[in-house]
Amino acid sequence: KMAGDSSFPDVDTDGSEKSEEMEIVVNVGGVRQVFYEDNLNQYPETRLAELVNCLSGGYDSIFSLCDDYDPAKREFYFDRDPDAFKCIIDVYYFGEIHMKKGICPICFKNEMEFWKVDLNFLDDCCKAHLSEKKEELEEIARRVQLILDDLGVDASESRWKRCQKCIWKFLEKPESSYPARVIAVLSFLFILISSVVMCVGTIPDLQVVDAEGNRMEHPTLDSIETACIGWFTMEYVLRLISSPNKLHFALSFMNIVDVLAILPFYISLTLTHLGAKLMELSNVQQAVQALRIMRIARIFKLARHSSGLQTLTYALKRSFKELGLLLMYLAVGIFVFSALGYTMEQSHPETLFKSIPQSFWWAIITMTTVGYGDIYPKTTLGKLNAAISFLCGVIAIALPIHPIINNFVRYYNKQRVLETAAKHELELMELNSAEGKAAGSRSELEDLSREGKDDPFYSSRIKVSHSDTFIHLLSEEKNYRTRLQSCK
User: Fold this and answer.
1) Domain Ion transport, which positions (predicted)?
2) Cα–Cα distance between 459 and 137 in angstroms, integer?
3) What would the pLDDT profile of 278-299 be if each residue is shown by its tens digit?
4) Residue 114 contacts residue 480 (beta carbons within 8 Å)
5) Cβ atoms of 415 and 311 closer than 8 Å
6) What is the pTM of this model?
7) Per CATH, the architecture of 23-147 is what?
8) Does domain 173-305 have CATH number 3.40.50.1000?
9) Nearest in space to 342 (alpha carbons), one of 369, 362, 328
10) Angle 221-223-229 (CA atoms, 0-180°, nearest 5)?
11) With respect to CATH, is domain 310-430 assigned 3.40.630.30?
12) Which of 66, 119, 290, 387 is most buried, judged by most C-beta within 10 A?
């Protein structure tokens, strides 16, 4: 470590280095490494290259670059991550950097910034890992910020704005309070009831006959349907009024589903009372029947209350490539085997394969192993072709399924990790905030512990604190994690 005096015996009075063959000895977290001047000068902007000329600047120049220096051993000391350093120095030998497995990408990025090595030297595979980790931190920061916004109360906001925020939390965030959780459960029950009523209303024994002899839904079921639609309408209008961004709200996929679940009722009601004057009664009834079928869209409203359905939707969205491969395999197989089946069955007098387009249906139900039996081969070659087609169909369907399942499991586990990380971040924020107040005033800490989270001043103070995980989106400060800090 540092000698008792501040002089450097290896530095001349004019600041020039004695040795012609310049060696730089670096000790990073106990790992000792020797570098030569020629290698380091390939990238003069890096911190290690700056060590070559720092001795001429004396004490201030040396300690602006390292944590400690031993003039007897001519050794620079750094309290940094040695595992990350071993990866970073590859740039001086190979011109690129690969990140080892097990190293946090964000910590590795901070280490590269400390050693002043450009991120462009990082290999593409490692950049993808870094981008994924940054997206996770941004998602955690977004969730934490939403929770902090809910805790904070801005006194400058108008009463209407505060009322909007309360309604939005009440309808959109069941975890915010017990009444909000009750409303979420009621909404879930109304969706189930309306779906059951839609199905039960098609049972002939429960239908009634009107004056013209047409079957229609039972009046009781119709009343339950009306009550459910009234609940959905009120819920949608309140959420639209209280939404912070109404355009984004209206264009959201789930909100479009809500509209599709509500509109058929009002359109059919309008056609029933007013459409008879504009068109024939039979046409009105057909239009109403078609609109009633659209009520099945309300079953998708369950996705709002089911994390499993949301995960499935996201997994399918992320699996477009695999689904495209599946459809391509099936399309090629359907075309080939339907053409072969048509050709092989032409010699049979009672053939069921009248044309290649008609054979498409046989190929679809065979390759998907459904096999309705309405079209089947009768010749030996046709049966052989059918056997090969369903074997190929099983393989074509099975191949892309595994990546789709992996996407589902990965996203589901990721969401659970992000929720836990957001809660942990908030707990650390509260802990750091409380420790800061305890250092300033013991009595103030006791007052805050009695007031709890309901105090708006307490909430606002939490916002300015940060934990050792440090999410950049929550603070303007520029901090770096050291190797002694845990990666969460």
Assistant:
1) 181-415
2) 22
3) 555 555 556 666 666 666 666 6
4) yes
5) yes
6) 0.53
7) 2-Layer Sandwich (3.30)
8) no
9) 362
10) 105
11) no
12) 66
